UniProtKB/TrEMBL annotation:
It holds the Pfam family ADH_N. GO terms for molecular function: oxidoreductase activity. Residues 17-335 form the Enoyl reductase (ER) domain. This is Enoyl reductase (ER) domain-containing protein.
Length: 341
């Protein structure tokens, strides 16, 4: 079927406003430029960064680059058109892609960089595929940042990195992948924090010990076994460095933090110059095609499960947005495009 001239999209036209700031509009279908592909969208997954950009938290970095803005950067769809210079895809191919910070995912069609687009095999659904780029990509880079080794695929037993790992916010989009990937890499003992209601789920993902973050022990990151950690994949917010430092082994260790504030950056710098054994490492996802392909492949093999918190049609994108802003998703929030209106 020929690509139409216009499409349904969801946009906001200023900073702030939350879910109420999202408007349903009819706009021209974008054209793929050099190095881009045009996708007929199947699904898009929301990440906290999407509404943080709307809040103006990345205003200093000129994000979004202009208003009105169509948010959401994690995409699954079908290639319908190729921009100049793109030869590694063909129309009709199912793919997943990440187009951060340009967004465009809450729409019937979106352009994506061919360089960060990978094939989606039939075993990985569009919903699952749309969840992987940011959340699983970040989980993988977080684990690598604390020394977990994925070289040559998961080792049969043990890994060269930390033996005792803590994953905070293990029920969230990033954390639920981090627990699974850590076990896949052979990390001996994974402790995970989450709310009590998700303890069973997180244990089912492979966590060896689960702490309820709302209890005093959980808030102190202290499990019943009394273990301290060689590394922390830190996906939660609001945990002071003093608590994280006390949770690390006396011999030292690394906390990789995916939501570092200015304080974390200063702490990290000071630790570096003082050659501290206990280190806080800020992490920003730098998407890599080969990592996306690897993640899709482990998902295809059934070794990486996506927990979907909730799915919404494009017509109810505001509800998906509000759910993400609420901060209590279990797994991922997905907008299915072309689904029920
Ligand atoms: N630096 C990067 O490149 C990058 C990339 C991706 C994400 N991030 C950031 O990483 C953070 C996590 O992202 P996400 O997608 O995983 O978020 P998310 O899915 O919205 O996380 C929600 C989950 O976190 C749990 N949670 C909240 N506070 C907690 C705490 N103190 N201890 C334990 N669990 C807690 C919640 O449990 P309850 O419902 O029980 O409260 C809920 O299940 C966000 O701040 C995001 O912006 C950064």
């Amino acid at each position: 079927m020929a690509t139409p001239r216009t499409m349904r999209a969801v946009q906001y036209d200023k900073y702030g406003g939350g879910a109420d700031g999202l408007k349903h509009v009819e706009v021209p279908v974008p054209s793929p430029k050099e190095g881009e592909v045009l996708l007929k969208m199947e699904a898009a997954s929301i990440n906290p960064i999407d509404w943080k950009i709307q809040k103006g938290m990345l205003r200093l970095f000129r994000m979004p680059s202009k208003f009105p803005f169509t948010p959401v950067s994690d995409l699954a769809g079908e290639v319908v058109e190729l921009g100049s210079g793109v030869s590694n895809f063909k129309p009709g191919e199912k793919v997943i892609s990440i187009c951060f910070p340009h967004g465009g995912g809450l729409a019937e069609y979106a352009v994506a960089p061919a360089s960060l687009t990978v094939a989606r095999p039939a075993e990985v659904s569009a919903v699952e595929g749309a969840c992987l780029p940011t959340a699983a990509g970040t989980a993988l880079q977080l684990l690598k940042a604390v020394g977990v080794s994925f070289d040559g695929g998961p080792p049969p037993s043990g890994s060269s990195g930390p033996k005792n790992l803590l994953v905070t916010a293990a029920s969230g989009g990033v954390g639920h992948y981090a627990v699974q990937l850590a076990k896949l890499a052979g990390v001996q003992h994974v402790t995970a924090t989450c709310g009590a209601r998700n303890a069973g789920l997180v244990a089912g993902l492979g966590a060896d010990e689960v702490l309820d973050y709302r209890t005093p022990e959980g808030a102190a990151l202290r499990g019943p076994s009394g273990r301290r950690y060689g590394a922390v994949a830190h996906c939660a917010t609001g945990v002071p460095w003093s608590v994280l430092r006390a949770a690390l082994d006396d011999g030292g260790g690394t906390v990789a933090d995916v939501t570092p504030g200015i304080g974390a950056a200063v702490t990290s710098f000071l630790q570096k110059v003082t050659l501290s054994k206990k280190r806080l490492v800020p992490l920003m996802l730098a998407p890599k095609t080969e990592e996306m392909e690897w993640l899709v492949d482990v998902a295809r093999q059934g070794k990486l499960r996506t927990v979907v918190d909730s799915r919404y049609p494009l017509s109810r994108a505001q509800e998906a947005w509000a759910k993400s802003m609420d901060g209590h998703a279990t797994g991922k929030i997905v907008v299915e495009i072309g689904g029920a209106v």
